[in-house]
Amino acid sequence: MRNIVLRANDGADHVISVAAASLCKTVASLLQDLEASKGEDTDPLIVPLPNVCNCTLQKVLGFCEQQRAFDELCTASPAAQQADLTRQIQAWQMEYMQVSTDELYHLVMAAHYLNVPRLLDLCTDAMAERIRGKSPAQVRECFGLKPSLSPEEEEEIRRSNLWALN
Amino acid sequence: MRLRLKGQTCTYGLSKHVVIQDNASWQQLNQAIVRLHPELASSSYTLSLNKKDALHASAADCVKSLGICSGDLLWIQVDSASQSDERSEAFAAAQQASPGQHHVPADCQQRAAPGQAETDVSHLHRPGQLQQQAELRQEAGSGVGQSAGLADAPGRLAAAVHQTLLDGSLHHVKGSVADDASQASSLLAHKQIYTLSAHLRSSSSSGSEAACRVRYIAMGSHVVVWATTPSMGVRSMTLAADTAGSLATQAGQQAALLSTAAARRVHDELLLPVIQGLCSDEGLSPPTSLRTLPLEIKLLVLRNLPAQGLAVIACTCKEFGHLASAEELWEDLFQREFPAQQDWPKQPRTRSWRSCFAAAWKDRIERHRHQRSFLRHPRRPLWPAGPFPSRPPILPGINGGDFDRLPQPFLRGSFGNVFGSRHFQGR
User: Following CA atoms B217, B219, B225, B227 in sequence, which dihedral angle do they give, to the nearest 10 degrees?
Assistant: First the structure.
């Protein structure tokens, strides 16, 4: 089995299997292109990722490996245990998403860059979850948004959205 | 169906509402609960209606069949370690007896049950967290926790706070922590004040360093953190450690989890605004935030938001105001929220989907309010059923019985002159 080495922007290398790497669509397409042009190769493939930092890459790879393991379990287990398994997956994902907002930004950027659809879904969900149930002032404070509206505009928008604000 | 949740520990002390479908299964209910209380995902818990009799059901059972109906108060009881052991044994026995059936409460039981294809989730903690825990332990051993001689739980919490402050691009420049702590502890035995005179780490020039003081103090079972910056003034927050203390006796892992949760809170609610304020003061490029994310990700986030969240974020700033008023978003939301009213916006549409959604939403709220007021004040019956407080009025033409033998002063004149008539009186 061919190994793939992902190199973070500070030079740290992470080795993952092809199976786990196939969740990253960017890496998977790169791999396909290489195989189409050169044929089978046994050397490890080094992929430099200039805009992903080490700790974020670690976290993303943890997600890939874990999803891989869950997928294998899902196909192996009988139908009766599926509900169980989805419950476990959800619990794991919930724990995985217990990160600070800052980390979440980096994670979502990395997921976008590496094109991991499931992780992207999970991250955007988590972000939406953090916006949900907050007032505009709280959202502005939490996410560092600048109030760029003039007071009249803001009042108008407020009035048009009054149905949702209370 | 709307249920109220309440737990006996102070962590879940406040009641929350969970909304599920009317025909939801037991599993869906549990998922909804875990979504509300993420901390329950890793522990086993039972649900009960009266705080005594725990509800047991298989995953596919309908919630209604358990006697739960809308508006009920569900008690969440978190099992202590011994109870969960007992119950996991019982669970294993139940598993052997009926392998097809699944007992629902808490996945950790299923993890503990032998002879089952499963994943061991205990080792799946993210590596960063493990590293952080190791650092925390080191930190507590060398610097903060030990020298200050703090009690267990607040000490751990304070160590977590310290580590968070160091992680988040602040570094303390003067007054080592241990010195300050020893000075403070000589003055006040129960108070330890740390001062982190923190400067923003700026790669560009060492000259442009913004000063900011972050202090934290352990008071009893609480840790108070406050930050002072020249532009924003003072921001403060309080972290409770009493739950950590009670949990520490049970399992060290949970306490570690709690301290990382506290660290996350400090990071999100205190440190991030402070750093953003400092950056804008100094004219540096702001740290990564929702504003600086690429457009596609912003749109993805907005797509996952419910209508209210979308309306709220439209009020925050100009850019999001534009993004959140996109027609496709509101069309999607309309189709999802009001599937029965597909033909609501008539074909030659003059209104935007957004205003259609707002109108439909208001309409629905109005209807719900009417329904609720109807339930509260049920319509009075048109004719009260007896016993009557006074004699019912006698209608003309249907007289009869004993009433007719008595003189009828009211039935004089125009109504048939039966008894109170002139002829009768004259005799």
Answer: -60
Contacts with B, A 107-126, CB within 8 Å: 108-109, 112, 120, 124-125
Which residue reads 């737990």 in tokens? B7
What lies within 8 Å, CB to CB, of A71 at 6+ separation is none
Give the span between the Cα atoms of B61 and B5, in whole angstroms.
20
- Assign domain B2-123 to a CATH class: alpha beta
- Torsion angle, CA of B309/A122/B165/B215, rounded to 10 degrees? 30
Cβ(B157)–Cβ(B216) below 8 Å: no
B361 contacts A164? CB cut-off 8 A: yes
User: Are the C-beta atoms of A27 and A17 separated by less than 8 Å?
Assistant: no
Cβ contact B105:B83 at 8 Å: no
For the record, the structure tokens of B74 come out as 């569900």
**For residues B35 and B101, which has the higher predicted lDDT (pLDDT)?**
B35
- Asked whether the predicted pLDDT for residue B314 surpasses 80, the reply is yes
For B295-374, CATH number out of 1.25.40, 1.20.1280, 1.10.3470, 3.90.1570 equals 1.20.1280
For the segment B165-192, the average pLDDT, to the nearest whole number, is: 47
Report d(CA B220, CA B244) in Å as an integer. Answer: 13
Closest CB to A108: pick one of B31, B264, B297.
Answer: B297
Residue to test with chain B: of A61, A89, A131, most B Cβ within 10 A:
A131
The topology under which CATH files domain A3-132 is: Potassium Channel Kv1.1; Chain A (3.30.710)
| The one-letter amino acid at B131 | Q
ipTM over 0.85: yes
User: Nearest-CA residue of chain A relative to B308?
Assistant: A164
**Distance, CA of B140 to CA of B152 (rounded, Å):** 10
Q: pLDDT per residue over A110-143, tens digit each?
A: 999 999 999 999 999 999 988 888 888 888 888 8
From residue B115, how far is each of A66, A105, B84 by CA, in Å? Answer: 22, 41, 18
Q: Sheet of A3-7: strands edge to edge?
A: A13-17, A3-7, A45-48
